[in-house]
Amino acid sequence: MSVKKAFILFLLTCQVLTACNLVSPEMNFDIAVLNCNMITGISGDGLMNELESPSAKLAEGSKTQVVAMTRKETIDLKIHFIEENLKKLNKLIKTEDTKEMIQTSTSLNEYVLAIYKNEYSELAKMYDEGAPREQIQLKGQSIHDKYNTKFEELFEKLTTLGKAYAKKHNIAVKWGINSSPAN
Questions:
Q1: Is the torsion defined by CA of 33, 35, 36, 41 positive or negative?
Q2: What was the pLDDT predicted at 22?
Q3: Over 60: is that where the pLDDT of 174 sits?
């Protein structure tokens, strides 16, 4: 094989290998930052409200009858979402540009996953078993008091990193109800 052919084969191989590993900036942003919007309810009253009035689902074997989900099902769906997002995060290639954002997102997802698997699963069980409202409220407040500060720190750091990343890559994002895409 001539040197020229070997060089062309080398270039083609490099292109194929790197093309398989390329993820668009938008995809990095969606997985690392945007998907964390699904877990923000633990910070305020969002998750407690969701557990208070759970989502509905189709009754088994029916195409029209709707029944309330158990609180365990609600928490299990959230656990599943986070576990799937962690798999996606682990597949992202960490570059100088994405490393801190991906690591922060991973830390945030792992932090919340542990809370869902433990305390929020216990809270869901209390709801499903009909525990007294006062007991449920105390448990919910205890979870908030114990975990909210670190959650807010991680979420704020991720938001700051996400804003910088979005700006650098011209990703139009609305950062709140009254924000412009640049904010």
A1: positive
A2: 67
A3: yes
